[in-house]
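User: I'm preparing a small set of examples for a lab meeting where we compare how different chains pack in three dimensions. I only have the primary sequence for this one, and I'd like the structure in token form so I can line it up with the others. Please keep the answer compact; I'll paste it straight into my notes.
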Amino acid sequence: MGLDRSPSPDLPGVPLAPPPPGGGLGNTAKSVSHFPSATDAQERRATRFKHQRAAAKLLPNSRTGLCMWAVASLSYGVDVINNTQEGRARFSGLQTCGSVWACPCCSGTVSEQRRRELNALLAWARKQGLHPVMLTLTARHSVDHRLAELLDGMKNAKRRLTTHRTFAKLLRPQLVGYVTATEVTGGGFNGWHPHFHQVMLVRAGSQAEALDLVEKLREPWLASLRAEGLDGSGAAFQVQGATAAGNYVGKWGAAEELALSGKKSGRAGRSPFQLLADYADQNDARAGALFAEFAGVFKGRRQLVWSPGLKKLAGIDEVSDEQAAEDAVRMADESKHDERVGHFTPKGWSVVRRHRAALLKFAELAGAAGVDAVVQASKPPSPPLPTGKPGAGACVAVQAAQGPQARGSGGSMHPSGGAP
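Assistant: Understood. Below is the structure token output for the 420-residue chain.
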């Protein structure tokens, strides 16, 4: 079978090779270029890789540029692992960055760890007879506000709120603890829109009593905003009960999944990963600049901030973002259902890593044969050899195309590569 030079969505612009001799791809496909369409999971993974490289371009010298791209050990390289029970492939031996804000690959892993922590907290609160209350805080914003300026003002206002006499006298005696998450949308007519979501655990006789206690913070919050030169309206302060808190935890990571799906939440405001998607998929330079601004402001910030002592009280361990990303890799590597279907030296990986999504997809479809097919497809075609008796110029051209390793000790070569 000849070489199929038609482009592929998995290997853009790279011709696809036929399957290895002997039908190594089985009944999955008659040729690599006729694999079935990717599953949703494979498409999301490919999109995640694509967006990650876009983030690396926007954030030069960041760890995100090395994540799932650079080898962890120059003495070993990279394995392609297929989990035979789950039918999912992955890489082993690559660096991770653990950035929940800037990395489309690590964000989901870290967010899942935080979701587990919040679920554990809510379960513990139920056993203690506590009432979860969902408090959302924000401020009036405009396109003139820089994100760092607006966020710092709101953080200072939140700090003022916790020292306000109403908070100290009415709520603090009944407040066991709280967790704060910061979320941001941007790119709309009114600029950046940061908001705090706080899950508060309150001692009260009923849910209604707990809600009433937290509602008393409305005026103190608006006063705290004014003290920081900010403004707020009724929408700047919202109190909801246990159901809303549970729903919030349940939809954790929905903004990232929306960005991967290609769907839009509206131009009025986009999540940071939607901004990144618009830059990567639509070449939206403004969206890219906004994402870079966001990533710079949030670098090093925690996704969840727990009130002092709450994690220990609830029996929840401390896990950093970087550790969460590394633990996910380690736990995957400990699976008993793993099969190594490919290995690359560091040099070999640098050649094929631009086809990460295709390597994993075809590993899932055809194992080692699928990995080999992608490797062969990623190689540039060999230059055609001249026919007939070549002249001296033709020999020189062939030598140049084949590289220095094909040359003799200064003498000429036949087109076949042998010595004269």
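A couple of notes for your slides: The two ends are 32 Å apart (CA to CA). Residues 164 and 259 are 39 Å apart (CA to CA).

User: Perfect, thanks.
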